[in-house]
Amino acid sequence: MDLYFSPLACSMATRVALYEAGAEANYLEVDPPTKKVLKDGSDFRTVNPIGLVPTLRTDEGVVLTENAAILQYVADRFPQSGLGAAAGIDRTRLHQWLCFIGTELHKGLFVPVLDRKASQDVKAYVLEKNLSRLDYLDNYLKGREFLLDHFSVADAYLVTVINWTMATPPIELSKWPNVKAYYERLRQRPSVAKAVAEEFELYKAEQARKKAAA
């Protein structure tokens, strides 16, 4: 399968899940400004017209988009990994957390704060309105190791999103001790540590390219 990704973007969650599952994949880096696939210079929009990562092409040639959907596909494709959840309330809980991370944290909180074109007033409004999501998460994680009763694709997504606090100074993890402890604990997990280290190196190379082109 082919995973189209950009360094340290939300697509890293799928990399974590694939590493956790011990699955083989081709990792194809997409340059965010140009939407070019670095490996061959092709236009990524011929694969995903919206131009967003992650995008996954399965071994059967089916193209999948949207982070939550791709993560659930990986969990179902590799059931022995334990990344998913059994049908019923457990699977619904998994859906719940994927939706919460995608809407309340990823799009609702971090995207506006990370947007260089957003005004300080907009960012201040977003922080005032949406930091309560971290309050909720912090309370939930008290005494818990994972979001469910085991490491799942929801954890792969959450640790990816929390990792963005490195680039968002107004969101200081020390204010949410349970979230901070969760993040630090998961950063030690081999699949997460490997993904973060590899993508951080790719991110530095990406920034060097931008600097050279400026």
From TrEMBL:
GO terms for molecular function: transferase activity. Residues 1-82 form the GST N-terminal domain. This is Glutathione S-transferase. It holds the Pfam family GST_N. Keywords: Transferase. InterPro entries: Glutathione-S-Trfase_C-like, Glutathione-S-Trfase_C_sf, Glutathione_S-Trfase, Glutathione_S-Trfase_N, GST_C, Thioredoxin-like_sf. Residues 87-214 form the GST C-terminal domain. It comes from the Bacteria. It comes from Bradyrhizobium rifense. Belongs to the GST superfamily.
